[in-house]
Automatic annotation (TrEMBL), chain A:
It comes from the Bacteria. GO terms for molecular function: ATP binding; ATP hydrolysis activity. CDD domains: ABC_NrtD_SsuB_transporters. This is ABC transporter ATP-binding protein. Keywords: ATP-binding, Nucleotide-binding, Transport. The keyword Transport applies. Pfam families: ABC_tran (PF00005). InterPro entries: AAA+_ATPase, ABC_transporter-like_ATP-bd, ABC_transporter-like_CS, ABC_transporter_ATP-bind, P-loop_NTPase. Residues 4-233 form the ABC transporter domain.
Automatic annotation (TrEMBL), chain B:
It comes from Sedimentibacter hydroxybenzoicus DSM 7310. This is ABC transporter permease. It comes from the Bacteria. It is a multi-pass membrane protein. Residues 60-244 form the ABC transmembrane type-1 domain. The chain crosses the membrane at residues 12-34, 67-88, 95-120, 126-145, 189-210, 222-243. GO terms for cellular component: plasma membrane. Belongs to the binding-protein-dependent transport system permease family.
Length: 245, 262
């Protein structure tokens, strides 16, 4: 994919606007964060972009093609990891391929190749409850990637993890991203996470939710550990806080 | 150490109670406190069971055949009804209340009707069993279908799944435990329904045997066949549990995991 665009999206429930006139775009290979407090309408926007929800106004375009209200074009990782408890990890992860019509055995073969890269080797035949939170998240990420290696929507992918595991996952994620170049739109309400991971940040606020500002994080990638305690990091953080408060 | 001892006690406590009751019962009838012709002693019952063993087996074969046939058809019917009701909400709204209503009619009340309509053969018996067994299956599955996490359906839809795929990958597997809970009930219903239908007419079956020994006032045989029937039900229910464990390995491993944590 080259470009994902959402233009002038408005969604209302029971007459009241939840999000209003939201326009965002995602370019090839970018990681872009959507940052905002709980309830501002981040998930609602994702439901629109993924095609699960028809907006009251606005359109979604992928490479110039109108995909408004059409599911199956961009991969979507929901707020919960949503691994099916009754499927083994490999069957969970290969699910998007099976849905697309691939034979089960073939889907498993294709999927198995990625287990190493995603740090999941040895978990193929296990069930989700046997994995740690970090592992489950990786499995869910791999499933998302197998659905589309072009563009992914991740709804708070790391929010359920403890802060140390989270840091490890951030580093791992940036590492993997360098190789697979998946264009990613990511929701978070963790400001630090947004600054560490993103090329750009859309800050959402208000009721109804709107994009308040687009913050560009102009730092080389992958960002080293010192970045988190650097002068410029604090500057970004202070700026974002001033928008939100 | 103490914990282990307690857990053993826990496990065998129900056996101890049963054993105590048996002893008490034996004493009551052996000493003549309760007259023997009314309440045969446990030993008498066992003797009656052994004495009539070949005959009981023969009758059991008939009863089990009926139960099995009825249960199979009832399960398929229950499954079909649940799937149709889930697929067409209008069917759910219009038929569900009716279905619940039919279940308030007691089995014993419709059994004679069925005999009048269908005679003394296999047909009325299997029909009765079907009528009593399809319900727990259908209700169990419908419950399961309705309690599926809508987000997991959303996830599949986002992947571009169609309704059939949502059904096979989400709805059906997440409803399996509900299905087996229903099946467990239906299995015991099937035996009871078979026996009841045999009371009203027929030439073979445990129900027929029961009617005959009742007419000859053989209380020991009566008790023997009652216990035999409940033993069969228990074994069949155990069979369902084993089947469930085989079909749902994730559920079983979850259980052992939990046990290990305690
Ligand atoms: N189906 C619905 N019907 C009515 N209101 C809804 C529905 N879904 C969401 N909302 C409302 O829309 C608002 C935005 O919800 P949304 O889930 O998009 O927030 P969010 O930014 O993702 O929050 P969080 O960070 O807690 O996940 C909330 O106030 C919520 O109550
Ligand atoms: Mg949300």
């Amino acid at each position: 994919m080259d470009k994902l665009i959402a233009k002038n999206i408005t969604v209302s429930y029971e007459g009241a606007n939840i999000i209003e006139d939201i326009s965002i775009e995602l370019n090839k290979g970018e990681i872009v964060c959507l940052l905002g407090v709980s309830g501002v309408g981040k998930t609602t926007l994702f439901n629109v972009i993924s095609g699960l929800l028809n907006p009251d106004e606005g359109i979604v375009e992928l490479d110039g093609r109108n995909i408004t209200g059409k599911a199956g074009n961009v991969s979507y990782m929901l707020q919960k990891d949503m691994l099916m408890p009754y499927k083994t990890i490999i069957d969970n992860v290969s699910l998007p391929l099976v849905i697309r019509g691939e034979k089960k055995s073939k889907a498993r073969d294709i999927t198995a190749k990625y287990f190493q890269e995603f740090g999941l080797e040895g978990t193929e035949k296990k069930y989700p409850f046997q994995l740690s939170g970090g592992m489950r998240q990786r499995a869910a990420l791999l499933r998302t990637y197998l659905f589309s290696d072009q563009v992914a929507l991740l709804d708070e992918p790391f929010s359920a993890l403890d802060s140390i595991t989270k840091s490890v996952m951030h580093e791992w994620y940036l590492q993997v991203m360098k190789q697979i170049r998946l264009s990613t739109l990511l929701i978070t309400h963790d400001i630090d996470e947004a600054i560490i991971l993103s090329d750009r940040i859309y800050v959402m606020a208000g009721k109804p939710g709107r994009i308040k500002e687009e913050v560009i994080i102009d730092e080389p990638k992958p960002r080293d550990k010192d970045f988190k305690v650097s002068e410029s990091f604090i500057k970004y953080k202070r700026h974002i806080l001033s928008i939100l408060m | 150490m103490k914990k282990k001892f307690l857990s053993i006690i826990n496990k065998i406590s129900s056996f101890i109670v049963i054993f105590a009751i048996l002893i008490l019962w034996q004493i009551l009838s052996a000493t003549g406190i309760v007259p023997k012709f009314m309440l045969p002693s446990p030993v008498d019952v066992v003797m009656a069971f052994i004495g009539d063993f070949p005959l009981l087996m023969q009758h059991a074969a008939t009863t089990l055949t009926e139960a099995f046939l009825g249960l199979m058809i009832g399960t398929l019917l229950g499954f079909a009804i649940a799937v149709i009701m889930d697929y067409y909400p209008i069917a759910y709204k219009s038929v569900y209340p009716l279905m619940v209503l039919t279940q308030t009619v007691p089995t014993v009340a419709i059994a004679p009707l069925l005999v009048l309509w269908m005679g003394y053969g296999l047909l009325p018996k299997v029909t009765l069993i079907v009528l009593t067994t399809f319900f727990p299956i259908a209700i169990g599955l419908l419950d399961g279908f309705h309690t599926v996490d809508p987000d997991s359906i959303n996830l599949l839809k986002a992947m571009g799944a169609n309704r059939l795929q949502v059904f096979t990958h989400i709805k059906l597997p997440s409803s399996l435990s509900h299905f087996f809970a229903g099946l467990k009930i239906s299995v015991s219903y099937s035996v009871v329904a078979a026996v009841i239908s045999e009371w009203l007419g027929g030439f073979y079956g445990l129900g027929v045997y029961m009617t005959r020994v009742r007419k000859s006032y053989s209380f020991d045989k009566m008790f023997a066949v009652i216990f035999f029937i409940s033993l069969i039900s228990l074994l069949l229910m155990l069979g369902v549990t084993l089947l469930k464990d085989a079909v749902m390995p994730w559920d079983r491993s979850k259980k052992t995991e939990r046990k290990n944590q305690i």
